[in-house]
């Protein structure tokens, strides 16, 4: 980890973990991949290690991220998918040459065509976004109930009633806010 940069929020779904690299979108937004190096770090922790990243590749990554966010949000509220977002996702998916590799232990890994090919890594993320937006995977897209967040997340809970993108951040903050509001309403006499 590089010091001085905001931490990553790690989720179990690649595409929505990626959109989570910009958090608090409706509040004081936090950019978690502010430099090409931070995108390299993020890709490494998500099994898509690359050697390097250019400013142009970071821009492309952010464009893909915002497109996934827009399309996933539309899907969550059952709105029409924005055509421009769909185009970016499809272009990114088509541009990459990543191969799924089965390890001797029976795990799937991604092999990129070259270690400098950020586009390959982005194609894996785009394909992941396509599979959740298309409803191919077991789960449901929903929007975080925190008003300053409203991130699209993939709810795989049995009841499909998860309210927050992340229990440790948005979930906890909301609980605390409710607790403080109750205290203001019912102050304990001194
Ligand atoms: Zn949230």
From TrEMBL:
The domain of life for this entry's organism is Bacteria
Matching InterPro entries, A to Z?
Answer: ABATE, ABATE_dom_sf, Znf_CGNR
Q: Which residues form the Zinc finger CGNR domain?
A: 141-182
Its signal peptide is: none
Cite the Pfam families for this sequence. ABATE, zf-CGNR
Q: Which PANTHER family match?
A: BLL6575 PROTEIN
What protein name does the entry list? CGNR zinc finger protein
**Organism whose genome encodes this protein:** Kribbella steppae
């Amino acid at each position: 980890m590089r010091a001085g940069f905001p931490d990553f929020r790690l989720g179990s779904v690649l595409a929505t973990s990626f959109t989570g690299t910009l958090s608090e979108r409706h509040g004081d937004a936090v950019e978690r991949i502010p430099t090409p190096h931070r995108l390299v770090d993020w890709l490494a922790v998500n099994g898509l290690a690359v050697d390097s990243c250019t400013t142009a590749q970071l821009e492309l990554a952010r464009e893909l991220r915002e497109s996934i966010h827009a399309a996933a949000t539309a899907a969550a509220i059952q709105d029409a998918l924005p055509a421009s977002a769909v185009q970016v996702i499809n272009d990114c998916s088509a541009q990459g040459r990543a191969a799924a590799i089965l390890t001797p232990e029976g795990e799937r890994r991604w092999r990129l065509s070259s270690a400098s090919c950020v586009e390959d890594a982005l194609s894996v993320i785009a394909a992941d976004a396509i599979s959740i937006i298309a409803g191919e995977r077991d789960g449901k897209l929903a929007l975080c109930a925190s008003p300053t967040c409203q991130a699209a997340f993939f709810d795989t809970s049995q009841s499909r009633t998860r309210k927050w993108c992340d229990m440790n951040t948005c979930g906890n903050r909301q609980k605390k806010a409710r607790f403080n509001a109750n205290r203001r309403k019912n102050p304990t006499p001194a």
